[in-house]
Amino acid sequence: MAALGALGAAGCTRVATASTEDGGDLLDRLKAAGVVRLGIAGEIPFGYIDKNGDLTGEAPELARVIFKRLGVDRVQPVPTEFGSLIPGLNSQQFDVVAAGMYVNPERCEQVIFSDPDYQMLDSFIVRKGNPKGLHDYKDVVEKKAKFATGTGYAEIQYAVEAGYKESDILIVPDQVAGLNAVEAGRVDVFAGTALTTREVVKKSGKAEATKAFTPLVGGKPHVDGGAFAFRPTETKLRDAFNVELHKLKKSGELFRILKPFGFTEAEMTDLTAKELCGG
Question: 270: burial class by Cβ within 10 Å (0-12, 13-18, 19+)?
Fold first, then answer.
């Protein structure tokens, strides 16, 4: 936590401002500075500071590779809460959101996304043995389970769509806090990505992750995709990022970068930001 605080303070220095002309000039500014500031949310395995105080996670490691190819040698973390990532990006506290953020229509009205580097289903953290038999959002509603999820998580929408009252949802900072809430009995279930839940429960003696499932949006199964977010004016940077991302997908190097963080081949994707933004 001390490392997070120190890094957060360091990250509040001025960043390169965006130009509204010809897709922005941020990439040129980043090349000149030699460093890009990444907004992260301290969420394992997407983007976090490890026990040695080093920046890691699937998004920062992918960012290192892509920005190196774009001529920017260093990445610098700016830790914040998940719900502050988009406001922080648009207020220029950092240059790019590198937090495995889901692409959805609401967020697409505020930022522009790269194409997703992974796809993901949902899963629950429940007490060992899953005593209430919670396997999807419908179960949570029908069994009147005490429900929690993270700040700004897409899972809020999925629970509400299933009929759960939003004001009854316990919002916690991250998946670790969600695990603690389940273990302490404050809630029956915490909802997150399948990858996040299966990783965070590995050392728990009181909780387990349920089998991954597909949430419903508009009554239809919905698969999420996580991507990097950019300010709306910076289309040049986003497009250049996408070119390198697709090269990594084609070569198989993308999977090699993400695999150490628990990603499987089933979580690689050809989804596009356009699809997930709603066309």
Answer: exposed
Query: Distance between CA atoms of 248 and 241, rounded to whole angstroms?
Result: 11
Per-residue model confidence (pLDDT) at position 20: 52
pLDDT surpassing 50 at residue 19: no
Q: Which of 77, 85, 53 is nearest to 150 (CA)?
A: 85
Cα–Cα dist 190/201, whole Å: 11
Average pLDDT over residues 162-183: 96
Q: Which residues contact 164 (CB under 8 A, 6 or more apart)?
A: 137, 140, 141, 147
Strands 189-193 and 118-120: unpaired
Report the distance separating Cα 192 and Cα 155, nearest Å. 7
The model carries a pTM of 0.76
Token pair recorded at residue 216: 């419903």
Task: Please report the DSSP string for 210-252 in residue order.
Answer: PPPB--EETTEE--EEEEEEE-TT-HHHHHHHHHHHHHHHHHT
| pLDDT tens per residue, range 99-109 | 999 999 999 99
How high is the pLDDT of residue 79? 96
C-alpha 15/C-alpha 160 separation (Å) is 37
- Report yes or no: 255 and 61 within 8 Å, Cβ to Cβ: no
258: helix, coil or strand? helix
- Residue 65 CA to residue 68 CA, distance in Å, equals 5
Residue 11 has pLDDT above 80, yes or no: no
Region class of 224: left (phi > 0), else alpha (psi between -120 and 50), else beta: beta
